[in-house]
Design brief:
Structural class: mainly alpha
Distance between the termini: 45 Å
Family: Belongs to the ATPase A chain family.
Transmembrane segments: 17-38, 75-95, 154-173, 185-207, 214-235
Function: Key component of the proton channel; it plays a direct role in the translocation of protons across the membrane.
Number of domains: 1
Order of helices and strands: EEHHHHEEHHH
Strand content: 5-15%
GO biological process, one term: proton motive force-driven plasma membrane ATP synthesis
Strand order of the largest sheet: 1-2
Membrane topology: Multi-pass membrane protein
């Protein structure tokens, strides 16, 4: 049974409050942490500045392993922002979920919704296709994308482009959604009515803690994989494999 949702309509489109609120909170956390860590930079870095530089170096190393140096330098800030936003969005629902009396969830992981992950996927692939046109020209881009390595592989290459979009978005959504669903099921078992409530709580509490830690780890891995695939797709479409 689907959970109830709070929606509103604007210009003929339906919007989900939980997605809007969760995404805005994730964005605010990313901005707040980035501003806090980068305040008052100095020649002699303090702990906050060291933390920010470590995060930048880490995201640059992810994208740098897939792209040439000059191209990786152009996408370093995008890779950092994407990684930071995705990891916060993955983890926030595991640490903070808000449900009202009507059963509607107003706060969860934004990436537990396919609309958010598909939007991130479209944005990433649009950048990859755009850099492909810029680097190779329109003709070279189309040849590289559709006719490589052989012209007779055109149908397979078209399917591959659709598969890239689906795998990039649904892999992230599936992992985060499954993690939150299982945590909710375990938490729900603690409130099971009857004489077995105490027994189920004893069993479910350590399981909840273990799965919470495992889900945090999976959320970080999925952010890492998303940025790696971003670099892979940019490399493929720009002819830098």
């Amino acid at each position: 049974m689907d959970e109830p949702t709070a929606t509103f309509r604007f210009l003929g489109l339906t919007f989900d409050w939980s997605i809007i609120i969760s995404t805005l909170v994730s964005m605010a956390i990313v901005v707040a942490i980035a501003v806090f860590l980068s305040r008052r930079p100095s020649v002699r870095p303090n702990k906050r500045q060291n933390a920010m530089e470590w995060m930048l170096d880490f995201s640059n190393s992810i994208i740098g392993g897939q792209l040439p140096k000059d191209l990786a330098r152009k996408f370093g800030l995008y890779a950092f922002t994407l990684f930071f936003f995705v990891i916060v969005s993955n983890e926030i629902g595991l640490l903070l979920q808000i449900k009202m009396g009507d059963g509607v969830t107003y706060m969860k992981s934004p990436t537990a919704d396919p609309i958010v992950t598909m939007t991130l996927s479209i944005m990433t692939l649009a950048i990859a296709h755009g850099i492909g046109v810029k680097e190779l020209g329109l003709g070279g881009y189309l040849k590289n994308m559709l006719l490589t390595p052989y012209s007779w592989m055109l149908p397979l290459n078209i399917i591959e482009q659709l598969a890239n979009f689906l795998t990039l978005s649904l892999r992230l959504f599936g992992n985060i959604f499954a993690g939150e669903m299982l945590l909710n099921l375990i938490a729900g078992s603690m409130a099971w009515p009857g004489h077995f409530n105490g027994f189920l709580t004893i069993l479910a509490l350590p399981l909840e803690m273990i799965w919470q830690g495992f889900s945090l780890f999976i959320g970080a891995i999925q952010a890492y994989v998303f940025v790696i695939l971003t670099g892979v797709f940019i490399a493929q479409l720009s002819g830098n494999e």
